[in-house]
Write a structure and sequence with these properties.
Shape: flat
Number of helices: 9
Number of domains: 3
CATH architecture of the largest domain: 3-Layer(aba) Sandwich
CATH topology of the largest domain: Rossmann fold
Family: Belongs to the 'GDSL' lipolytic enzyme family.
Protein name: SGNH hydrolase-type esterase domain-containing protein
Keywords: Hydrolase
Helix content: 10-25%
Radius of gyration: 26 Å
Largest sheet: 6 strands, mixed
CATH superfamily of the largest domain: SGNH hydrolase
CATH class of the largest domain: Alpha Beta
GO molecular function, one term: hydrolase activity
Distance between the termini: 34 Å
């Protein structure tokens, strides 16, 4: 029996009934296979190319037999430039893919690159938002360069979501109102992970791509299982209240206005800002308006809590949203929340060291960042080497704990705000020190610079 192994992150990972409605697409792939093929799903939460390579890939390679398939569905976590343990720069990302491909082929198995699925996010104009950045493109490049089979799941799911549209797409994700599911009494807004219907629909897309691939052996997929397309929910508005404008203009009101906890008044937010808060006793629905137009609504649970996110991204600029509760005896008074959406952020200002200046072996970087920026990430040679928190006054500073070798370097600095980051600010740095080959260096060459427990960045090939 040949194996189809899945290496991926939480979007593909298998889920237990206790985790429902969360589901990974990998747990449904076996439904589409012909006999004598089995799925082994090794996808896990927060997995990256680097962590799987160092922790588990050798074990997988030992299990492979000629003719097996390995589906590599990574690239959804590695884009997190705000997280040093997860981020992979473009060069590092591609280099790891090359290593996976070489290792799998050496065992006589077939590597298959699977681009990350699109998220349930739509632009203000109603188009599917690109939230994966350059990583799907990097996988396509590696597939073309190495002649590796490709399942372009990013493209397939983008087309699928565009066909569904904003009002239906969320029904395939773990996106629930407060009180809608006992496992998520306060609701959950998860635009990345699928529910069972979504996971099965995406597994079907993967099965179709495997069946149609000219780079893989035939006979993997039972075509009869592909004959029936998944049913789509009807096109409904996101909201269940008829004539919602009544709630905005009614002169008769009862109870207390809903309280908004997030966003805070005047807060700078990203385009996918979630709202949350409380409502008074008896209020069972909360509605949202801007400039007299109805934006959406959400249920209120028995404890009076609610959360909501607009399916369409907020356009950049200032917003004033009115919030009103729906009550069996009528509607509540209005509350309002003002906030500002930012869809881009400026690079940080680097104050030290100055451009082209000489620095000691451990340069100290410092500067300022725009309002709302929480971190400044430091990269050298395309590798993330440090993270600097931004203080309340907008300043930041960081010293890397490893000595730098003498030479001239280009260092990049990136501002992080919400789920977006800036283009890099660049600095040319000259490091002063003992040259390579000097006796002072050679005299200590018998000893390693750091222990095996070193947590300093960047990853250099060990653990």
């Amino acid at each position: 029996m040949s194996k189809i192994c899945i290496v991926g992150n939480s979007v593909a990972a298998p889920r237990t009934p206790e985790e429902a409605p969360l589901a990974g697409w990998g747990q449904f792939l076996a439904e589409f296979l012909t006999p004598y093929h089995e799925v082994r799903n090794y996808a896990r939460d927060a997995m990256t190319l680097r962590t799987y390579f160092t922790d588990r890939l050798a074990t997988l390679l030992n299990l492979l037999a000629p003719g097996d398939l390995v589906l590599i569905n990574l690239g959804g976590v590695e884009q997190r430039i705000d997280n040093p343990l997860r981020y992979h720069g473009p060069r590092e990302f591609k280099e790891f893919l090359y290593l996976y491909i070489d290792g799998i082929r050496a065992e006589g198995a077939f590597p298959v690159l699977v681009t990350p699925a699109a998220r349930c996010a739509f632009t203000a104009g109603g188009e599917v938002a690109d939230t994966r950045g350059e990583y799907p493109g990097l996988m396509r490049e590696v597939a073309a360069e190495t002649g590796t089979a490709l399942v372009d799941l990013g493209a397939f799911t983008t087309g699928w979501l565009a066909e569904l549209g904003p009002q239906r797409a969320r029904h395939f994700f773990r996106w629930l109102d407060a009180g809608e599911h006992p496992r998520h009494p306060d609701g959950i807004i998860d635009s990345s992970h699928f529910n069972e219907a979504g996971g099965r629909a995406v597994a079907r897309m993967v099965a179709i791509a495997l069946h149609e691939s000219r780079d893989l052996p035939p006979g993997l997929i039972d075509v009869n299982t592909l004959a029936t397309a998944p049913e789509y929910p009807p096109v409904l508005t996101e909201f269940t209240v008829e004539k919602p404008e009544f709630a905005l203009h009614s002169e008769m009101r009862t109870g207390a206005a809903p309280a908004v906890e997030r966003p805070a008044p005047g807060q700078l937010t990203g385009a996918m800002q979630k709202f949350s808060g409380t409502a008074g006793a008896g209020t069972n629905y909360v509605l949202f308006f801007e400039n007299g137009g109805y934006l959406g609504g959400t249920r209120v649970n028995a404890e009076g809590r609610w959360q909501w996110r607009r399916v369409l991204n907020w356009p950049a600029g200032d917003h004033l949203v009115q919030v009103v509760g729906y009550h069996p005896q009528g509607v509540t008074p209005l509350s309002t929340v003002a906030f500002t959406v930012r869809d881009s952020v400026e690079p940080p200002v680097v104050l030290g060291p100055r451009e082209g200046a000489l620095s000691g072996a451990r340069p100290r970087f410092s500067g300022t960042a725009a309002a709302g920026v929480t971190k400044v990430m430091v990269l050298e040679g395309g590798r993330l080497i440090a993270s600097a928190p931004v203080a309340e006054d907008g300043t930041w500073k960081v010293t890397h704990p490893h000595d730098w070798k003498p030479g001239t370097y280009t260092v990049e600095f990136v501002s992080v705000f919400s789920a977006i980051h800036s283009r890099p600010a660049r600095l040319t740095l000259r490091v002063h020190g003992v040259p390579e080959g000097n006796w002072i260096r050679q005299s200590v060459s018998a000893r390693a610079a750091c222990s095996d427990a070193c947590d300093h960045l960047p990853f250099s090939g060990g653990r």
